Amino acid sequence: MELSDLDKQIVKELQSGLPLVKRPFAVLARRLGISEEELFQRVQALQQAGIMRRIGAALRHHKVGFTANAMIVWQVPEEKIEEVGQMFSQLPEVTHCYQREELPHWPFNFYTMVHGRNRETCEQIAARLSQLAGISNYRLLYSVAELKKSSMKYFMD
Amino acid sequence: MELDHIDRRLLNLVQSEFPICLEPYRVLAERLGISEQEVLDRLEHLMKQDIIRRLGGVFDSRKLGYKGTLCAIKVPPDRIEEVAAVVNSYIGITHNYLRDHEYNMWFTVLAQSPAKVEQILAEIKQATGIEDIINLPSKRFFKVLVNFDVEDNRD
């Protein structure tokens, strides 16, 4: 789906937030100078095309008790990537799962993010994943501080 | 702030099952058995408390034409704040974490092309004088899930 200028304007409005009023799309439509109906049709089209995944709330994890996050970096042989990727992404403890390029001095090519209430929980999860996948070369990199966490603002530069 | 069970159910609903319709807060109210005004008041309060960071559209960056990568930089401990200020100044750098590793600052970059990513990294190197940055573009994406079950979470 090719995005029109109007679609990009709609993305910019929706990413900045859905107004907390009874008819939120009516408010956004007024800002965009279109009808509520036209806006809502475009929003549905964006969703059907998979461009908008959903409308939803992003939470501050620390405030709801998820204090430790660990990035686990793995060295997975190329021929096992598919299998390991499918396996790990089905587990609820794994929130992010990516294959990434490796570098000569950085051999890790597979990345999972796990969140736990403390470090021990994260370690247990890592050990279980390692056993499940049969991959023993991994490291846990714990977050020590969150320096920035924001939602992406598209089409702003 | 103490969250009651309605807050917790509301938080779960608005994370993953937000209804896309003209009157979404009324639909949420029906599902929770409370009034629409109470839904609006509770959401406003959760935002003011910064428990909800944002309520809005969640987009697929790839389908919007953006490329994503993960980068790490080795920052001397006494320069964390200064280097973070440089890194965090970019809109496309949305996440930045300090981690316990010699590559200690890990950040994600989203930009409209790999060349734009390279340009941002070159600017960071120039502004900080730190050359050791690893750039790990994603090759294959398996999962991103950002919802957290906040019910039954009282410890």
TrEMBL record, chain B:
Entries under Gene3D superfamilies matching the protein: 3.30.70.3460, Winged helix-like DNA-binding domain superfamily/Winged helix DNA-binding domain
Residue ranges of every copy of the Siroheme decarboxylase AsnC-like ligand binding domain listed in the record: 63-143
Q: What is its EC number?
A: 4.1.1.111
- Iron as a keyword of this entry, yes or no, is no
Q: Which reaction does it catalyse?
A: siroheme + 2 H(+) = 12,18-didecarboxysiroheme + 2 CO2
SUPFAM superfamilies, sorted:
Winged helix' DNA-binding domain
Could you give a GO molecular-function term held by this entry? lyase activity
Q: Which residues form the Siroheme decarboxylase NirL-like HTH domain?
A: 7-53
What UniProt keywords apply to this chain's record, in alphabetical order?
A: Lyase
Q: Does the keyword Iron-sulfur apply?
A: no
State which pathway it belongs to: Porphyrin-containing compound metabolism
Q: Which SMART domains does the record cross-reference, listed alphabetically?
A: HTH_ASNC (SM00344)
Question: PANTHER family, from UniProt?
Answer: SIROHEME DECARBOXYLASE NIRL SUBUNIT (PTHR43413:SF1), TRANSCRIPTIONAL REGULATOR, ASNC FAMILY (PTHR43413)
Q: Which family does it belong to?
A: Belongs to the Ahb/Nir family.
The name this protein carries in UniProt is siroheme decarboxylase
User: Which species is the source of this protein?
Assistant: Desulfotomaculum nigrificans (strain DSM 14880 / VKM B-2319 / CO-1-SRB) (Desulfotomaculum carboxydivorans)
